[in-house]
Amino acid sequence: MTSLIPPIRLGVNVDHVATIRNARGGDLPDPVRAAQLACAAGADGITAHLREDRRHIRDSDMRRLREQLTVPLNFEMAATDEMVAIALEHRPHAACLVPERREERTTEGGLDVLGGGIDLAHKVQKLAHAGIRVSLFVASDAAQIARAADIGAAVIELHTGAWCEFVAAGETAKAAAELARLLDAAGQGSALGLEIHAGHGLDYATAEIMAAVEPVRELNIGHFLIGESIFAGLEGTIRHMRTAMARGRARLGAPQAA
């Protein structure tokens, strides 16, 4: 008897719709409208990162997303007292804690769960006690993943950025080695009872490969989808991504580096 293939979800990050809006000021394009279109096209959830410097998503965007979405909202946030308070106010479905530095262009590297100590553990527990599903954005590092499980995270999101960069540069050996680390990390996290998500830098080809990794339950993708939508429209781009993910999921087995 063939076992059922576990489903995989697509979370769409709408941060860069807000980036375009903020480049000129005003209210357009509206990231909430983009989120609604994404859901209509097949997104299973919406991710938005409220950064300390508010460079893209605004506080009002988070409020409107929470009020208007009918799918889960994943609140990406730094592990600060300010962001914990905002998350507790809005009560999103999930909160993904990420490292954040003012000078970076986007999230670089995984969260230092070990270095976060008892303070990070208390923040995770506070969010979890409020009914918010806590995810930690981590690198493929065994010690960091073990600590994520120890402090009560429900989910880890594996940072796929380095792998995607190696794939894009045609560095086959490095891409294969990084993919092997991701596969090991996914297996370790799953064995520890963590739900496994993945994201950062994924495009159609790399998302298809990650969709074939059995422990992975969700891919979170933003920049590529928003950029590609300039040429193909947001709904068409998301449908194309869903098709790529479905192809990957249908051949669960031994994924190969692109």
TrEMBL record:
Main location: cytoplasm
Biochemical pathway: Cofactor biosynthesis; pyridoxine 5'-phosphate biosynthesis; pyridoxine 5'-phosphate from D-erythrose 4-phosphate: step 5/5
Swiss-Prot/TrEMBL keywords: Cytoplasm, Pyridoxine biosynthesis, Transferase
Keyword Cytoplasm annotated: yes
Sequence positions that bind 3-amino-2-oxopropyl phosphate: N13, R24, G201, G222, H223
Active site: H49 (proton acceptor), E76 (proton acceptor), H200 (proton donor)
Keyword ATP-binding annotated: no
Site (Transition state stabilizer): residue numbering on this chain: E157
Family of the protein in this entry: Belongs to the PNP synthase family.
Subunit: Homooctamer; tetramer of dimers.
Full protein name: Pyridoxine 5'-phosphate synthase
